[in-house]
Amino acid sequence: MREPKLRRRLFFNGLFRAGIYGLAFGALLPLFLILIDVFVKGLPVISWNFLVNTPKATGETGGGIANAIVGSLMLVTLATAMALPIGVAAGVYLSEARQSRLAYFTRLAVDVLQGMPSVVIGIIAYLWLVRVMGKFTALSGGLALALMMLPLVVRGTEEVLKLVPAHIKEASLALGVPHYRTVLRVVIPCGLPGIISAVLLGVSRIAGETAPLLFTAFGNRFLEFSPLKPVGSLPLTIFTYAMSPYQDLQAQAWGASVVLIVLVLATNIISRVVITRWKIQF
Amino acid sequence: MKIVSTILTILAVLCLGGAALAAEELLGAGATFPEPLYSKMFDVYYSQTGNKVNYQGIGSGGGIQQILGKTVDFGGTDAFLTPEQLAKSPDNPLLHIPTAMGAVVVTYNLPGKPQLKMTPDVIAGIFLGQIKSWNDSRITGLNPGVQLPGDPIVVVHRSDGSGTTFVFTDYLSKVSPDWKEKVGAGTAVKWPLGLGGKGNPGVAGLVQQMKGAVGYVELSYAKKNNLPYAVVKNRAGNFIVPSIKSVSLAAGASMPDDTRVSITDTDTKDGYPISAFTWILVYKEQAYGNRKASKAKALAKLLWWMTHEGQKYNADLLYAPLAGDVKAKAEKIIKSVTFNGQPILK
Amino acid sequence: MRRERLFRNLLQLAAWLVGLNVLVISITLFWGASPTLRHFGPGFLWSSHWNPVTDEFGALPFLAGTLATSFLALALSLPLSLSMAILLGEFLRGRWLSNVFKSLVDLIAAVPSVIFGYWGLMVLVPWVREVEMQLMPLGQRLGIEIMPYGVGVLTASLVLAVMIIPNTASIAREVLELVPRDLKEAAYSFGATRYEVVRSVIVPYARSGIFAGVLLSLGRALGETMAVTMVIGNTNEMPANLFAPANTMASVIANELAEATTAIHYSSLVAVGLVLFLVTTGINFIGTYIIKKMTVQA
Hints:
The complex is a heterotrimer. By secondary structure, chain A is mostly helical. Helix content of chain A is 76%, strand content 0%. Chain A contains ten helices and no strands. Chain A is globular, with a radius of gyration of 24 Å. The mean pLDDT of chain B is 89. In chain C, helix 4 packs antiparallel against helix 6 (153-177). By secondary structure, chain C is an all-alpha fold. At the A-C interface, helix 1, helix 3, helix 4, helix 5 and helix 6 of A face helix 1, helix 3, helix 4, helix 5 and helix 6 of C.
């Protein structure tokens, strides 16, 4: 009597199960397609020359992306230098003074900043620095990226420090160590791997950003080490070359994509590994 | 802590060292029309003099905007400044220095890469959306030997403010009253239909990708990427193949002293009707903001080089070199660039 | 004691800097956009003319483009991300395989958007173009004009859909894991199949959390710039249908800011940025608020 109904329910259950597995694999499929495409098309392009040369004149082959690599590294360094001190300090504050009004206001601000589209942050950096200084600089690009990195650093630091077990802190205080010293010499060092992990995650996020750089760092065909000049970057190079008709440049865009993806994935994975191993301690 | 401070010190030294060691670096931005030429010129200039000239192709509209905003040392444009734009800097006028001549060609993606003949009406009709497919009688009538597919025509235009657009629409406004009324001329117009590509490369890239696409780009972009382009009927009634020769012929006789002139729809017998000059924009008085004398001098020297030794790179990239009288006018303008009232080049 | 105070003050200063930063950002946006706001008023939002030549600016085409691509992307990605969430939070819960999948999903979020854009341009666009060519006769009969551009709202939505999968997937998974065990076990003990438990117990319980994840995905999709710019066709008009090219608020700013020709053009772009900022912040707020309520509850 109940058999047919049960069979129907079991059938739907099986259908559901197949559907979930299928759709979930479908969710991952594009990722694999993209990664395979990037590596298949990009790896052949990578050579020592490619990594070390600067671009050649339009239409000539043999150019490279050294300027973009150096530019990206420089922008990331500038951004980290700007975001790290303020971000860690704010994160420390939030983990210490949980309930104060300032903490509430700061957390609100961090939430807003995290959700901000990268173009809007680019507009801000353009208005604050490029318009005021009267020129395009790596510094303005670094500022835009720092603003994007800030929420990740603040949040990450706060979370990490909250995870540090209370007894470590209390032991230090019980020994008579002043509070500020406890934080500086005990709590932060204990949480350092976690903080580093948050910073690396931030780096991985901003290394691939293009939009804010379009009107701040602007781009540069030459190797540039001064933060007061425009610089190229990997995402910008990919964007420009991808849309051009020159086959050689399109191939270079794939090569640059490989370099960028390796950079981004490496920092991402290292960040995850660091935090997992640190968490295991507790 | 020590590691951090060591790293920071090294970085600071690198940055300061980089800033100090740099020979004069000039920043320019603007038209993508001459970009293949400029990138070659500046590469050679760097290897010859060690001076870096960083040029970013963001479109003539961008070039004009950035030089007006004084965020770049020079702007590149194929659309000379209108009186309104010139009026934005009344005390320190912007000078136009021509560097080359080029052709705006109608390029398309068709099987067999045929070289099609087109009249001004046909071009206007295509870009107005009146001629919708490639085997329209107006096109096949002009090209009896060519097998044209029935594919729809996919129009590609510029999405950014473009001197190339200005030249193209200026030409169309002169030859088609319909176009003049419906669309007009400008660096950015309201296109009746079509896709937008960013820069000359963007348009060329889209045309290259899409079967049946048609767009307008500088000759170099089409030729160097094996894209076919149209042979256009000029005012004298001849079908002209865009080339260095036909572009040079389009220059015609008279040119104003400030070199701001449009040479589209030329009345010369064998001139290509969609030709144009491209210019570099600089301020006459270079001592603005906190510009240094060394930078102004480097700029003036660059301009002189571009109009003299640099000209030998034009032909390979399919740009026409400056003819004698144009060059003379350019020289005069370059010599009029001053720093604190004193001309820089004697 | 003095050092103690100094330390505290430094920390507070940092917190203030972060907070004020955001305040100054908002003020800057309003200030930059004010010429346009004063000139056009609220009509800016529903005017569909964007013509740099005649200095007429209206944000409607970009609002339409943004909303169309974002909502379509959401609809396309939802089945995929929810399935992933259910797989990880229910089927494979606690097993090592779930960590592998979770890392893979997070990897999607790590891929830079310009690479998504390039892939979309080289792979998706030709494919969509083929589809459009097949659909053209059908479209003609229905009165819809379909040009085989390949770029357009549809392609942009496809790329976006892939990019926002991780957002919903991870939030939904966390929320699903929060469902109390006894509720599920009670249902199973009644003889319910897995499907029935998911459908009738787990999902309804986690409904608001899933909704919050959806909102956060939406927030991400609204602000995405580069991947969209490369495949949307860069046309400042209202898209006639899914296959038409368009522009989003983010992509028009990326395209035109460096070369805005007049002061009003330039402030209109900032105004578009302001609108984008307000919309994304609003949506993100609602999403975060719901999640906070849910996690406090649990």
